[in-house]
Amino acid sequence: MPWPPHTRTTKEWQPRHRQGSKADRTLDRIEVSIPPAIKDLVFSPSNEAGQAQEAAIIAVARLEAGFGEHLAPLADFLLRSESVASSKIESVDAGWHAFGRALAGGKASADAKSQLAAVHALIAMVDAAGRGPMSLDTFLDAHRLLTAPDFYTAKDSGALRDVQNWIGGSDYTPINALYVPPPPELVPELMDDLLVFANRTDMPIIAQAAIAHAQFESIHPFTDGNGRIGRALISAILRRRGLTRQITVPLASAMLADTTRYFSFLTGYRSGQADEFVQYLASAAVHAGEASAESAHALSELPGAWKHVAKPRANSADEALLARLLEVPILNADMATEITGTTDVSAYRALGRLTEAGILELISTSKRNQIWAATDVLAELDALSAAIRKRTLSS
């Protein structure tokens, strides 16, 4: 059964303010896109899409099952990587050092705070999906977390939009827009339909995640943050269906590698090309899963390498820090004191010795809240992103 394309309809346009060019000021009608109802649709994949989904399931399952004692720190590592890459797609990029300062509670830029908010939103959606069926509150709560750092977006946080939005084109009207989502009065009904679809258990998992994401982006239910919430929905469905139990597959890194291709497949979905978007997401999952497995192996070797370099005394503060550094790669002095179970002086000395050894780097010079980061872990974050990019662009 073919997947239905979006329909289009013409609506009256009444701008709140007369701004922009003459064409903006005189615009009185716009064409909006209406996504189909999908809650009861059956997806029939092509042979290629079916095979791609099987490969994706295997890659994700191997990543989830394969790393034993290092799975918990790997889960945090991948979650942060996914959130940061998803933010970069929206041109929000603070860099790992600034993000690290925000993560440890230090003074941070607006972009760093936004990236950290994306982490919190992703965690909220995935955890909620892991507990049971998703509801509208799943999205609204995540949206509140995502938009909290920005005063201008926070005023619309946790609420479906009540205005017309659009992608591309003019800043003032939908004239020449790349895509005009459905009018706001249809959003609640479309979200109800999407929630039924996203909570189904009779769909192939990868297809369900891909189609739900594309449908969400087509509805564009919020005034801001739709991309990051929509990509978090993919991870939420993987958790809801039990494909992942602890990890988050860094799919956004594959999308970030070629955003033009990613947006092109989303556009194709709107013309009924669901099969192609499912193949695209399945391929992204394979690339991300395989590259993440390599990063997991590299991370698992770091504690031994650190001990070889630092040569900590048995039962010392240095040894205690090294034992937790994969799990807590960004930390301040209070965190170090808690980890080592020693005095502030002993913790500072241990931090100093590990910094001199090149294992830690001081990423905040503030005397009130110094912050250190494990340089090898930050380097591996960049290495993972580069590896996914290379695999994506060569496929």
UniProtKB/TrEMBL annotation:
Gene3D superfamilies on file: Fido-like domain (1.10.3290.10)
Protein name according to UniProt: Fic family protein
Organism: Rhodococcoides yunnanense
Domain Fido: 134-283
Biased composition range(s): Basic and acidic residues: 9-26
Stretch list, region Disordered: 1-26
Pfam families found in the cross-reference section: Fic (PF02661)
